[in-house]
Amino acid sequence: MTVNTLAFLLCFIVSVILYYLAPKKYQWIVLLAVSLIFYHLMGVDNFLYVLITTVTLVIATGRMKKIEDETNAELLEKKGSISREEKKAIKAKGKGRKRKWLVFGVIVINLGILLVLKYGNFFIDNVNPVLQYFGMDGMNHLGLVAPLGISYYTLQSIGYALEVYRGKSEPERNPFKVLLFVTYYPQMTQGPIGRFPDLAPQLYAGHDFSYHNLSFGFQRILWGLFKKAVIADHLKPLVDTIFDGYATANGFTLFMGCIFMTLQIYADFSGYSDIVLGVSQVYGIEMMENFERPFFSKSLAEYWRRWHISLSSWFRDYIFYPASISKAAVNFSKCGKKIFSARIRKLFPVVLALSIVWFCTGFWHDASWRYIFWGVGNGVVIISAIILEPQFKKAKEVLHIKEDSWWWQGFSILRTFIIIALLKVFPAGDTTVQSLGIVKRLFCNFVPEFTRAAMVPGMETYELIYIAFGLILFLCVSLIQTRMPVREFLASKPFVVRWCVYFILIAGILGLGVFNSNIVGGFEYAQF
Q: Are residues 205 and 237 in the same domain?
């Protein structure tokens, strides 16, 4: 039961009625019950792993809080009778090894479960050839199945433990409330990856019924369904047709496939985000925005600040920043004074951290080399832009290019979009071999051919009209969004205008949309 089905919509409406009928102090229990029922209906058999995550969080965060309280009590007891050095020593002890081991334990256990379930067979496939080369028997594949959404709730849970460790969040003692934070059903399968200080208080607090939240929430659900059913699901057969026939396809056709795939994934993923953010708003809960018009970005780095924001910010806060100030980075800067220039020593921590982040980003998406290549490819482009920034700046000065000129901004947006699309070539194939084959034909057999068969093979005229209608409306909404929130803009219009817009969206969804109830196939990012 995915969020783009009638069954989900009916269950959601029933849950909203029960939620607002319940006393405020018990509303979180309704959310927990709905989340557990939803998780069960998704066909997930390995609920044990969710319980392990919850238990480790409750134990570790509770123990960290106890150590902190004991430290504060000791400081209070000795107030005025200890030196500044002794005070620092007590604080260091309170934040020392015990707390580090606790948060380390949460990371190892939960990341270990993720690595075994999602990446275990990938490691086995890559280790077996080495074992066989030395005459040893290869290992058999693991018969374990990763629970749906494990990549998302694992990162969210680790983030919660790190927030408590850093003293930025108070731990939740009620294990059932922690379970709700881990399993909150709108974000379960594709995020956004919530932050405990922002999301948890909203989950646990009571909410009064609000017509504003109901209206705006359903508007966003409607828009998400439109993007999914009218744009993404009409583009998917076109993308599949192009890449399934890559062995004989013209490189230009494959390039068009990369563009269509980029648009399809955005409409699919942002459509899902719109639906679940709308669902949450009906409950009175504001979740993190996951997209901010990413195709208006003027660089790849800016694009990743606007795309899948919850994941990008998670890697930034919990991997990039720690890696950039790690001992390895600091020691290199100190030891390389006589060998390397000041600029290289300054860039090294950034390059090191970005290299780790982008390898992890690719590997997080899928246990395959094609996604690792995709992640590393993004990293290479971003790192190259940082390293070559002085040269780019000089070239702009020589060519008298003004960065705020309309034509340069337009060129930057187009250039960034093409880079994004070309990088999609790596995950375009079903296997790494296929992806490499697509890369080869894309660059070695590229012949511009502006014919219908080359640009949109196998597509009927009516399908092209549907896609064009959806993309034009999508663009108009994005342009309005650059000036003011679209729902606020719509709310300022007369009743007749608003309902004309609603009618167009509903008619588009029902008349032009494609519907798919397959759990993984329904949304692209559910597989991650």
A: no
